C-alpha cells in the first residue's frame, strides 16, 4: 500500500527542488563567467583559446578516418573500419605463448602483502587528485564530477572497492575498454599505421591506483626491487641507468685483465673435454652443440622389380552445367567481375585433360649422441659396472607411427658417472661478480652519500649510502645454477633419435597453359598407391612424365638418405587431378577458361567482363 505524502513532506520536497534549481543556475552563471574571463584574458595562449572554442562549438574530439585498405579489402563503413582496427590491435596485444609457465622466482623474504584496506580518506585523496582534462571511460562518468563530489563519493566508493576486493568480483563495466585509433606514421589509409589509446573507467583506475600504491610500498619496504629496475620508479631516471650500465661494462672489461678473479667467480659453461670418459663405440662424442652423428647400419636391399599393374583410367570431364556454375562462383568471388559471361555464354567445346601429381614419402630414422649432465641429488647411477654400453643403433627405442615426424631423447645404458661440478668446482656456489663478494652496492640515488638535495635522507638506502646487492641478495655468493648447489653432476651419454617424413612431390606439367602452382590448393583422386621398405620406380604409366618424375624422386631420396639415415618405409602415390578447358562464345567473341581439381576451381586470367573502377 502506497503512503500518501503529508503537507510537511511536500513542502520539504519543494524547498529542496528550489535549492537544487538555484544551485544549477549559480553553477551555470559561474561557468559562463569563467569561460568569458578565460577568452578575454591576455594570459590565455592561442592554443588554449582555440581549444576552448572547439569545446564550446562541439568541434573538438572528432576524428576523420579515411577509407582503410589493408592490402586485401577496403573498409568503407564505420563498422568495417572498427573491425579492421580491432583485428590489428588484437594481434599486437596477443601473448606469444600463453601456455608458457611463469618463471621460477626464488623466495627472498618471508613477508607477505597484507590484506587491502580501502579507507574513505585514501579514496578522497585519489579523487581530489584526478586530472579533469582526461577523457571519460565507457561508463560516461567524467573526472570533473568525481573530483568535485570527492567528499560525498569517498565513503560509498571505499565500501564498493572493499567488497570487490573481498569477494574477488570485478564489475564488468570496469573491464570494458574503448579503443581510440590514433595515427602515428606514414599512410593514413593503412590500419597498421595506427596505435590504440585505451579509455578505461576512471573509477576503476582509482581502485587500481590504491592497489598499486600498496604493492609498491610492500616492494620498497622489503627491498624486493632489484637495483637494475629504473623504469616506473621514483627517484630513478635514465641518467642513473646509463651510469650503472657504464660501471658494469667497465668492471667486466677490467676483470678480463685478471684471470685470478675469474677463478673465484664463474667457471666454464661447457665441461672440459678431459672430464668426459672414453666409451667404446662413442668415440668423439662431445657435450653440447648439435650432437655427434652416427652412421646407420648397412642393410641389404630386398627391393625387387615387380610387374607394373596395368590400369586404365577414364579421363574425367564435367558437364556444361557444372562448368557454368564454377564460372559463376568464380565471378561472384571477385568484386569487379560481372556474372554476365557465365550466365549468357554459349559453349563451344569442353576439352578434358589428365593431370597427375606424384608424391613420394620416405620415412627415415637418424641418431645423434652427446654428453649431457644433470645435478646429482642421490639418484641411481647406471655406470659401466653394470656391463658394457650398447652401440648407438643397438639401443632399443620404440618407433612412432609411420610417416610422422617425432623426436625422442633417451640415456644410453651403462654410461653414467658422478663428477665434480665444473662450474663451481664442487663448492655449490661462487662469489658474486656484481658486488665482489661484499653483498653491498653503492646507492645510485644518492651517489653513496646517504643524503639527497636539500639535506634530505635518501629513502632508497635509508641514509646508509649502500644497498643490498640484487643478484646475490646481499649474501656475497650466488648459487651455482648448473649443479643447483649440490656440487656434483651426473654425466651420461644422451641418444637423440629423430624420425622424419621426407616428401618429394611434383605435378606432371603438360604445358596446357595452366600454372602447376595452382594444384597445391586442390585435390584429386588417388589412382595408384605403393608402400614398402623401398619402393620401385613407376614404369609404363600412361603419362610418361610420371615415369620420369618417379625415377627422379626415388633416385633423389636414395642418394640423400641412403647413407645419412636409416630408411624405415617408403610410400608413393599418384593422384589424378581433373582439368577441363572450356571454350565459349560471348558477345560474338571466343574465350576460354580452365576448371580444375575436385573442387572445380576456375582459372580465367582473361575474364571477358571486368570493370576498371577506381576507388577514390
Brief account:
With 616 residues, the chain is α+β, with helices and mostly antiparallel strands.
Can you describe this structure?
The protein has 616 residues and is an alpha+beta fold. Among the domains are: 7-57; 68-96 and 105-221, no CATH class; 238-257 and 429-479, no CATH class; 320-362 and 500-603, no CATH class. The chain has 13 helices and 19 strands. The chain starts with 6 loop residues before the first helix and ends in a 13-residue tail after the last strand.
Keywords:
single chain; 616 residues; alpha+beta; two-stranded antiparallel sheet; 13 helices; disordered C terminus
Count the strands? 19
Compute the CA-based radius of gyration.
39 Å
- End-to-end Cα distance, whole Å, is 67 Å
Q: Give me the number of helical elements.
A: 13
Low-confidence stretches: 255-264, 302-307, 612-616
What is the percentage of strand-forming residues?
A: 15-25%
Q: Estimate the mean pLDDT confidence.
A: 82
Q: The biggest beta sheet, please?
A: 9 strands, antiparallel
Structural class call reads alpha+beta
Helix content: 25-40%
**Overall geometry:** flat
Explain the layout of strands and helices:
Layout: H1 7-40, H2 46-57, E1 68-69, E2 74-75, H3 78-92, H4 120-128, H5 143-148, H6 150-167, H7 172-175, E3 178-183, E4 194-199, H8 202-221, H9 238-255, H10 259-264, E5 292-294, H11 320-332, H12 340-344, E6 346-375, E7 406-411, E8 417-420, E9 429-431, E10 440-442, E11 451-452, E12 456-457, E13 466-468, E14 477-479, E15 488-507, E16 525-532, H13 544-561, E17 566-586, E18 589-596, E19 601-603
Antiparallel strand pairs: 1-2, 3-4, 5-6, 6-15, 6-17, 7-15, 8-15, 9-14, 10-13, 11-12, 16-17, 17-18, 18-19
